[in-house]
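Attaching the record inline, Q. Sequence:
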Amino acid sequence: MNKNIEKLYRIAQNKERIVIGLMSGTSVDGLDVALCGIKGSGVETDLKLLEFETIPFEKSFKAEIKTILSKKTVDLEKVCLLNSHIANVHSDIILGCLKKWKLTNDDIDLIASHGQSIYHAPASLHKQHGYGNATLQIGDGDHIAVKTGIITLSDFRQKHIAAGGEGAPLAIYGDYLIFSKKGENRIMLNIGGIANFTYLAGSLNASEVFSTDVGPGNTLMDAYMQEHYPGKYYDEDAAVASKGNVNEQLLDELKDHAFFKQSYPKTTGPELFNMHYLIKAKTMSGTLNINHEDTMATLNKLTADTIVDAINNQIAERTKYNIYLSGGGMHNPLLRKTIQEQLPEIELRDTAELGIDPNAKEAVLFAILANEAVCGNTELTDGFVNVSMGKISFPH
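Structure, as predicted:
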């Protein structure tokens, strides 16, 4: 037997696996690194978050990624070069974290790398005849495995697409396996670049689990801040949006898009919700000259409204549920306030109450997916594929 496969087999038999989950979102702020201890698999999964770090990216590195991020036309050579370069940067970050945690690569069983999404193209968005759903994450797993000396699983979204899904959201799998609780209906609301939620029924019936993207989370607000406030990557503490007033004409135009009329579940990305989308809506609504504060207030309200609309559309009013937040948007006080005002009977909580740092939740998800790929046998399918996702890269 190949020694790498033999080692993987032994890892699968271990009582506990030590897995590093990695996540870099479309905001390209930095790399989330979650060190997880995982016992069991499937509904018997027992996960403990042992360590967590978010390592900020250098400005020049972020700038390089943004030259190819969510753009239809890019420099193909740059894509090729960044595929390995991103992996090497992520590897250096992993090695730095291991040193800080006083661990070696021999202490780690697996790395689960989401990679860097550079383009997400569901058929509902690209509308090109003869082509199906597609998505692309770069940051090659082989480079990570070789540089760190740790077996690496990566490129998780392709299996979902290959089996007929849209490649996102994948949160349904991890949410169901570690956050379901008998007797409590839960909505796991993640407000990252794109907002999405998973509904977990208190019955623990996997067929009732539901997950979908709902629209822009932070992506439009972040893009606007970066264009009009040099040096600012996001609206910290909603300082800009809180000074403005919502422009109802612009808000109505932003909402008047085919995406919001599509049936659920659905997926989207900054390929749709970007500055072009905003400028078109401003032009159509005659609001090109409104000030920055009013624009930001309106974008903030758009995110809140579309989240609440999706929850109300998909979760019956008679159903009692609790909402647990994660993602960068949970730190936006105006966004939280607006969502809370529209759901007055619901207390907004976060996943820290469930034992997982909300900032680490997405990285933890991919650690779970890697664990399932190696030793899981769950039947949760979300209508498309089971949780056997991720390509395996050996270090030798």
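The first strand starts at residue 16 and ends at 24. The first helix runs from residue 3 to 13.

More tomorrow.
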